[in-house]
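fyi for ur records
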Amino acid sequence: MNRRIFLTGLTTLAAFLGSFAMAACLLASPASAQNPVDDAMVDDPAAPVAGNPKGDVTIVEFSDYNCPYCKQSSAELEKLMQEDKGIRLVYKDWPILTQASLFGARMALAAKYQGKYDAVHAALMNIPGPRIPQDRMLAAIRGAGVDMERLEADLKQHAQDIADLLKRNSEQAEALGIEGTPAFLIGPFLVPSAVDYEGFKQAVAQARAQTNG
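which gave:
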């Protein structure tokens, strides 16, 4: 896909995004565009993807493993994805809160090379609370069915690729004007806040309606 996504002004979506959501940005056509963002945001081949790879609505999730609001939203989105098989989810690890956040992100992305990103992501998201230390993250990863010897090897072998991906994620978040986690691109909408199940459901419906004209 060679199209480009363009960020325009702020549009309030709190009216239909549920109790957690606060506001969103509407993405418009190139004619009125400012701050262009490359299509790698939704199609970066290095980024982990879940759900339906050919889904009609793509959700891009910017998150940090030490963000409690990310954990709440992740559980709500997972609930919706169990029901709605038309969602494609792109993970954007954006470790901005603590050094342990970076540790968790690097480990999750290294696990992708053995097909275990989803398992590590879920294990880290299921640790309750903020400021989770590295040793507690490591224990959760070990309990996720990961080949730890291969994980360490992949972490070293693919260190530069992982660093480059994290850098791209950060640059994309900054280009969108995102100031914290979680944040979601739901079709053409940027939602820079936590979202609950009803909020995700309604935003996906709104994205489909806009896409289908």
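The chain has a mean pLDDT of 85. thats all i got for now
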